[in-house]
Amino acid sequence: KQEVTQIPAALSVPEGENLVLNCSFTDSAIYNLQWFRQDPGKGLTSLLLIQSSQREQTSGRLNASLDKSSGRSTLYIAASQPGDSATYLCAVWGDRGSTLGRLYFGRGTQLTVWP
Amino acid sequence: DGGITQSPKYLFRKEGQNVTLSCEQNLNHDAMYWYRQDPGQGLRLIYYSQIVNDFQKGDIAEGYSVSREKKESFPLTVTSAQKNPTAFYLCASRDPGQEQFFGPGTRLTVL
To answer: A-B interface: how many C-beta pairs under 8 angstroms?
Structure first.
């Protein structure tokens, strides 16, 4: 069964720092990987989708990388701002058998950026 | 505006009652999903449907039921058999190989 782990579970940093959030998964047979943001009491907002054939994706100050063979992804946030404070979740899509069409989520990294 | 709507935003249920959570999407997506979120446990998949008139159980389907009679709608019923239904429920949809999009969620509380 696919398991997704996110490290660290929580992170508190001053404004302006560059951040690295880590995600690892146990089964490298994934279809693609998606990063989400969740604000308290809200639904999830999609940040980046990386196809299994890609190595990275960028959107503004966000950059996500994917290394399928080692089962790792990294979300890089440049020049962090207080508005970046939220929980960031990593999820992988299964690509075969009973995992096909399903997303497997990590528990998230709770980020606080203080002024 | 294209998106996913969930209603109601807050729902209160007495023990022994069945309640139905609504999820509607106008994104023309084939696949729809229901998740449950509890503090400290992350998201857990309840049911999903990849096409109209078809759905599969997720990891925690016991005490829940769904239907998929229309492409745009995927209601979730929380039955009295679900012993601990208090949670935040999230609906999502996507097209194959593409991003998954989420609704704003329904918070269910058992009184």
So the answer is: 48
